[in-house]
Every structure is written in C-alpha cells, then in structure tokens.
Amino acid sequence: MAGKSSDPKIACPVCESAARVVRGRNITPLYREVTYDCTNEACGVRFVCSVEPRRIIGQPANVGDCGLPVVAPGSGDAINFLCPMAA
Ligand SMILES: [Zn+2]
Q1: 86 CA distance to ligand 1 centroid (A)?
Q2: Dist. CA 59 → ligand 1 center (Å)
Q3: Digits of tens for pLDDT over the chain (87 positions)?
C-alpha cells in the first residue's frame, strides 16, 4: 500500500533523484516511518525516513507540557526530518 499523499517529498540519499513513497506506517501516534524507492532505475535504492514532531512554532494557548521545545515563528521553523536529505 502506498503512503499517504501528505508524506514528505524527498530526494534519494544516494543519487539525489526524486524518490516515491512505497508505504508509510505510524509506529506510534507521534512517530511515522515512510519507505521510499528511488525513481532512478540505475540506482534503485529503497530507504526509510522517520517523521516526528520536533518543536512547536509560536505559543498556542493550550500547548501544556508536551515535552517539545517552543520556538518563535521564523526561528528554526523549517521542516526538519531525521533523514539527512530533507530539504
Ligand atoms: Zn537514487
């Protein structure tokens, strides 16, 4: 089964060609693994990326103590996945 359309687009970590989602699964409600195939037939690498919340941007009213750092908008709010090729 293919991953969700909302899974992040990412380049192949070997050849930097586009990669397509093969499948995604929630390991926990806050941690998702997404499997990709490189679209470059000469490469053909399959790899797994991790997606998880890293920080909260801004100061919503009901954050509570969820354990995530809270940062001001514009200060490090870029997408930050564990996979090293994330843009
Ligand atoms: Zn590749």
Answers
A1: 14
A2: 39
A3: 566 667 778 999 999 999 999 999 999 999 999 999 999 999 999 999 999 998 888 877 777 777 888 788 877 655 444 444 443
